[in-house]
């Protein structure tokens, strides 16, 4: 196993330009307004992820209303959940141009619009567009900023903060299920969706709470991280910085040249505006419009340049091999977590455990323990003597073991134990933003995590149909668990191999230098 984060070449966003002069740390980092960011992210997870977990209530209503096949109707909720994650890389472009706050507010409006328009659906295909696409894109525009902002505001307690915020998914699953069931019973599913759309407007309030950190806050944050690090950690960070730079850190010189050109354009517009004060009102109004358009163009060009460089330029994130292995892992991980929710009802019926499962459903055990797993794993990961990477790997090993052994359990007690372990170990979801930030740094967190959740979205979109196809072919649920578990294990092996290669390279280099 690995002793520390630095062993796998993590980059904490350290900057050699930060001087040794003490800088007063900003109180909003790891405290103050940072906890308001956690609250905002917690509410976002309730309103978005919690609502998506409760879509089974609406799925029943849609089946009765439109009389379509279960497979076709299920694509409505699958599209909404999948698109929420798949649009991650494109939401990174919005964050680069507009910032997290504006992106989240626009997403909240779009999500509410998707819910409200879906209330007037005349067929399932209409829901594909309004709920699957419109509400899904809106959810993605709020979800990614909610995760990124927590990563920006926390350094010492990042894992705990992410764990607390993501517990909103579990709480939301219970709250939104009860709420939608009540609204559908009292007002019908159309009015229920209309009311839910009004409730979703609170996402705009959550977005307004995402106050951006000022540049001086980021500098203070970097100084705190450096001043608290030990000598061996500094060596690891220097090696990590060299690794990431060789893999392609965004160059600042072209950005400075572009900023200088843009400032010249804006200065010329301002000069014309000042010189034209004596002109009539229409001319002044036109100059103001020109100035606004120029500023908007500068913002869009700068944001697009950063986004494009992160994905396709010489400084692409894909040149970081550990990060690429992380993407491959994400493609297989999420479907393995979803498959038990699909086949557990069939397992219960096969072993005649319906009476016991009705008292305390196995899926509820997973959901409840999942909440505690996120918080506990976050607390453990923040301990000084514990590596987040090692906790992340151990949780993955536990989860894949449970996935492979679950079909062998034939009693309610053994199934309950395995489901509890699945719920606890899947709490590693709260560590994903922390591991991503350690790999690429805070500056590239939005774009990098956008890629990771995009991979998760593809897994969520294709995993359940793939499991259903295997069941139709074999008429056994066992193979769905075994195949998904083996694919999941392949992803974990990629995570293990790449850090070993990254550690081996500097040793080989030092051996060659000694021979010379």
TrEMBL record:
Keywords: Membrane, Transmembrane, Transmembrane helix. The chain crosses the membrane at residues 33-55, 75-96, 103-121, 127-148, 160-180, 192-214, 322-344, 359-377, 389-409, 415-436, 448-467, 479-497. It is a multi-pass membrane protein. GO terms for cellular component: membrane. CDD domains: MFS_MCT14. It is found in: Membrane. Residues 37-503 form the Major facilitator superfamily (MFS) profile domain. Coiled coil: none annotated. The keyword NAD does not apply. One of its GO terms (molecular function) is monocarboxylic acid transmembrane transporter activity. It holds the Pfam family MFS_1. PANTHER family: MONOCARBOXYLATE TRANSPORTER, MONOCARBOXYLATE TRANSPORTER 14. This is MOT14 protein. The gene is Slc16a14.
């Amino acid at each position: 196993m690995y002793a520390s984060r630095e062993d796998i070449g993590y980059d904490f966003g350290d900057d050699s330009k930060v001087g040794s002069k003490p800088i007063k740390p900003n109180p909003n980092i790891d405290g103050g307004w940072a906890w308001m960011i956690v609250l905002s992210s917690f509410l976002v997870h309730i309103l978005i992820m919690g609502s998506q977990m409760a879509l089974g209530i609406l799925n029943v209503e849609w089946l009765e209303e439109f009389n379509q096949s279960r497979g076709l109707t299920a694509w409505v909720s699958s599209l909404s959940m999948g698109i929420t994650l798949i649009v991650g890389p494109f939401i990174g472009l919005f964050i680069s141009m507009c910032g997290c706050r504006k992106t989240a507010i626009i997403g909240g409006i779009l999500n509410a619009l998707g819910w409200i328009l879906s209330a007037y659906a005349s067929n399932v295909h209409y829901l594909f567009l309004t709920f699957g696409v419109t509400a899904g894109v809106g959810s993605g525009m709020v979800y990614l900023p909610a995760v990124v902002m927590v990563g920006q505001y926390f350094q010492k307690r990042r894992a705990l903060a992410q764990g607390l915020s993501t517990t909103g998914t579990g709480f939301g699953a219970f709250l939104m299920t009860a709420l939608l069931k009540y609204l559908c019973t009292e007002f019908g599913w159309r009015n229920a969706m209309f009311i839910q759309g009004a409730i979703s407007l609170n996402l705009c309030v959550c977005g307004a709470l995402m106050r951006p950190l000022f540049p001086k806050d980021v500098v203070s944050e970097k100084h705190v991280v450096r001043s608290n690090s030990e000598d061996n950690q500094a060596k690891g960070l220097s090696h990590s910085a060299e690794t990431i730079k060789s893999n392609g850190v965004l160059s600042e010189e072209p950005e400075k040249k572009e900023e200088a050109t843009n400032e010249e354009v804006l200065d010329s517009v301002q000069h014309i505006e000042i010189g034209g004060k004596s002109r009539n009102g229409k001319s002044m109004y036109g100059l103001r419009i020109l100035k606004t358009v120029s500023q908007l163009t500068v913002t869009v060009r700068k944001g697009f340049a950063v986004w494009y460089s992160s994905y396709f330029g010489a400084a692409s994130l894909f040149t970081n091999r550990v990060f690429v292995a992380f993407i491959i892992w994400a493609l297989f991980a999420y479907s393995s977590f979803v498959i038990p929710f699909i086949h557990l009802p069939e397992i219960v019926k096969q072993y005649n455990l319906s009476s016991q499962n009705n008292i305390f459903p196995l899926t509820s055990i997973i959901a409840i323990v999942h909440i505690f797993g996120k918080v506990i794993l976050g607390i453990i990961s923040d301990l000084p003597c514990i590596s987040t990477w090692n906790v992340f790997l151990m949780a993955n090993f536990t989860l894949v073991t449970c996935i492979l052994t679950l079909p062998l359990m034939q009693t309610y007690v053994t199934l309950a134990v395995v489901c509890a372990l699945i719920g606890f170990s899947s709490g590693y979801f709260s560590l994903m933003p922390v591991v991503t930030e350690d790999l690429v740094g805070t500056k590239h967190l939005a774009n990098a995590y956008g890629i990771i959740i995009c991979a998760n979205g593809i897994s969520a979109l294709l995993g359940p149909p793939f499991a259903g196809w295997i069941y139709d072919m074999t008429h056994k649920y066992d193979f769905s668990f075994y195949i998904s578990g083996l694919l999941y294990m392949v992803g974990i092996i990629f995570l293990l191999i790449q850090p070993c290669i990254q550690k081996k390279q500097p040793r080989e280099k030092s051996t060659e230098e000694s021979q010379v």
